[in-house]
């Protein structure tokens, strides 16, 4: 609690991070990690088809160049900004957690930076030297090697981050021995990498197939040939994606058992779990059908709109997968170590003894009194609930209580019931961390929530007017 608390009360902090992060993952996987090897491969095919008198086959080379133009523009703008944006947004919302990750992954973070800078330099070189690569056979061969190097570096960038993502879900033996190696080689790391790698390639294939349909002349033999190659790419990646998804999928229940001791709560997760299964089946079947048709029946006329289906399927699939990954680590932001409310598990006894306010550097009040009850309650809300709930916005705490007690319009919340609930909140719903504060802070929190219900004063206005 050494940091000020940033809070977006209308949409919630979770949504802010989710929008930036999901956008980033879709671009990173679909247009960088999986896409660049695909473009390099198409460029290579054009090189091979060049024949005796030409350096390349122009149609193939132009297609590769056009695909790369799309990737270049999007990855170097929205892709790069959202990538950095994730760290800005999550440092704002949960600085303690980013602080912990930096401490554990200190060296890896530095390596990540050098790899990322290399990736950016390579992408600039690869794209901007395309014209010059057409000057000679040697230049083209070199250029293709550059594409291969870029593919490898984009993959390494992702593979370091995936270790950190795995660590957030399950810290493995790190909780006991606190070594970097234990953190880096956490149990979720390899299954997740085994899933993300072919997933990225498959997403890229879906996007590539769609773009190729747009970039080539309808019905031309080149359209058939190039689409057939991309369909082959997709068909080859499909079994690996499925195998990776299963490896990862079977890690999830294991993790749930470790992290989520309360059986009732799992019902809530169940619906997402079912959705994931439906999405795995639905998205992969769509990809199989369309890629299979393009490959085996290249002459069949398929309307452009149909090519969007695998793109939507793959993006939706990846999006849902990210949502589940985020959800199942709750109530922790770092498995078994730090709760999503930014408080460390091992500090709880201290908070129970002294109260959380006493340890909250930026709280204007350090102890609950009769006069400061609402200000104190607001602070307790900010510390223990605001990372996931707003007062009146999305996932509003007042709405949650009103719905849970099935209150009718105008009915008031019952403070005693709420106190009892919050005291054992982690048993009621496994995804919420235990309440960290003492009795007086619990009363103040309940007073504050009731106050919000009464007159709905938004939190920002309160914070400035009451201090
Ligand atoms: C780690 C995130 C997180 C924290 C911290 C958190 N909650 Fe929740 N809470 C949730 C989620 C997620 C839901 C379910 C939202 C939904 O309906 O999908 C929820 C639901 C609830 C519900 C409704 C439960 C039900 O069974 O209908 C109440 C009441 C509630 N929260 C109160 C609180 C209070 C009070 C605090 C602070 C002491 C708090 N929560 C802290 C994530 C959190």
UniProtKB/TrEMBL annotation:
Keywords from the named record: Heme, Iron, Membrane, Metal-binding, Transmembrane, Transmembrane helix
Highest taxon of the lineage: Bacteria
Entries under Gene3D superfamilies matching the protein: Cytochrome c-like domain
Transmembrane stretches, start-end: 15-42, 63-88, 108-128, 148-169, 189-211, 231-250, 275-295, 302-321
Domain Cytochrome c: 372-453
InterPro entries in alphabetical order: Cyt_c-like_dom, Cyt_c-like_dom_sf
Key word Ribosomal protein present: no
Protein name in UniProt: Cytochrome c
Source organism of this protein record: Flectobacillus rivi
Top-level taxonomy: Bacteria, Pseudomonadati, Bacteroidota, Cytophagia, Cytophagales
